[in-house]
Write a structure and sequence with these properties.
Oligomer: single chain
Shape: globular
Strand content: under 5%
Order of helices and strands: HHHHHHHHHHHHHHHHH
Number of domains: 3
């Protein structure tokens, strides 16, 4: 497995589960300003924003029932709600339900809008993203290529086509098609460059630069990879001068420098990232603070402070178990990170137990061969080799 594999960065962090409520309140049909349907949608959004996914799912299902009563079971206005339901199910690792909802949304759009509509391409992109979560990269590639053909055939919305091309490039990375990945990523970056006034492109550009660096490094074009990562840091500063994107970009640059024997540069980048992450982490441990806790732990560990890193990973794990549950794959990811910190502190027994628990979680959720299963098995094999 290649060192820059998309779903497994050098330091495992949160699972990428996509944008939430990307299309809610933007359905293809009419909406009233104040009614049960809108209230249910808004309730779902608020609950999800707090990490209360179970209640959010109930509210979103109420919204779907209200929309079915109002518009009928085959109206395209159901598609955005089904997309939101699928996103919630992905957050909860209920992948079969997510796939069912997304395929229903796709079928509704194909039936009502035709096979070559922009919203059909969006549904295909969402299905491709779900398949990537599950490690089904060949299937994901097929869906993403169909989506890109739709966008190219019709007068494209630049945001959507750029997103599809960048997603396709990231899938190519997982399939170790690095030259194709760069081609798709560069096409997406060209679209962004020519439509730079679009707000949504800022984050897309950052994703593309990160992915381009991975492809360049695997092609041993280290100068290009370094340039990509430096450009990502600059882009992150433009997006939000004090935001986490800059910290994430600095961590990727630091990892790259460390792996290429540029220790002084790496330490400086890690320290800069650490200052950013410290700003966001207080005493609260909730869904909102969870990403910040894990980022700070990664920075502390990279700088050799295993004591603070261990405490932060334990805090992240406890929060994840509360929000997602003890058998959720996100909890498994935090167990992998905790095991690294425990091993660094000399607590081999706890680390070995946590690795096995993480592997058991992944094997329950995913099919054999999923990247997270491979990662956990690889770490255990290295452990046994010592």
């Amino acid at each position: 497995m290649k060192k820059n594999f998309l779903l497994l960065t050098r330091r495992l962090n949160v699972l990428h589960l996509g944008l939430f409520f990307a299309y809610s309140l933007h359905a293809e049909g009419p909406w009233d300003d104040q009614d049960f349907l809108v209230v249910s949608e808004n309730t779902a959004y608020v609950k999800a924003a707090d990490g209360n996914f179970s209640d959010a799912l109930t509210a979103e299902k109420n919204a779907l029932a209200a929309a079915e009563d109002r518009f009928g079971p085959t109206h395209p206005s159901l598609a955005p709600i089904l997309t939101d339901l699928a996103t919630l199910c992905r957050k909860m690792a209920r992948y079969s339900e997510a796939e069912s909802d997304l395929r229903w949304a796709l079928a509704l759009r194909e039936k009502n809008l035709g096979l070559n509509d922009q919203l059909v391409a969006q549904s295909l992109d969402q299905l491709a993203s779900l398949d990537s979560d599950l490690g089904l990269f060949e299937e994901s590639e097929i869906l993403e290529k169909r989506a890109s053909k739709i966008d190219i055939k019709i007068t494209p919305i630049p945001d959507d086509l750029a997103q599809i091309l960048i997603h396709l490039g990231k899938i190519d990375l997982c399939l170790q098609k690095y030259s194709e990945a760069l081609r798709h990523l560069n096409q997406g970056l060209d679209l962004i460059k020519n439509n730079s006034s679009t707000t949504g492109f800022k984050t897309l550009k950052l994703e593309a630069l990160w992915a381009s660096a991975q492809a360049d490094e695997n092609l041993e074009k280290n100068g290009n990879a370094s340039s990509d990562l430096l450009a990502a840091v600059d882009q992150a500063k433009q997006n939000n001068p004090t935001g986490l994107e800059e910290g994430d970009s600095l961590m990727k640059l630091a990892d790259f420098n460390l792996s290429h024997n540029k220790q002084a540069e790496a330490i400086g980048d890690y320290q800069s990232a650490l200052k950013i992450f410290q700003h966001y982490v207080g005493v609260d441990s909730s869904y909102v603070t969870l990403p910040y806790i894990s980022r700070l732990a990664m920075a502390e560990q990279a700088l050799g402070d295993n004591t603070d890193a261990l405490a932060l990973w334990k805090r992240a794990l406890d929060t994840s178990e509360t929000i997602y549950g003890p058998s959720h794959p996100q909890t498994g990811v935090y167990l992998l990170n905790l095991a690294d910190a425990e091993k660094s502190k000399g607590d081999g027994k706890s680390a070995f137990q946590d690795l096995n628990t993480a592997l058991a979680i992944f094997e329950t959720v995913y099919d054999p061969g999923h990247p997270l299963i491979q990662e956990a098995e690889s770490r255990l094999q290295k452990w046994e080799g010592h």
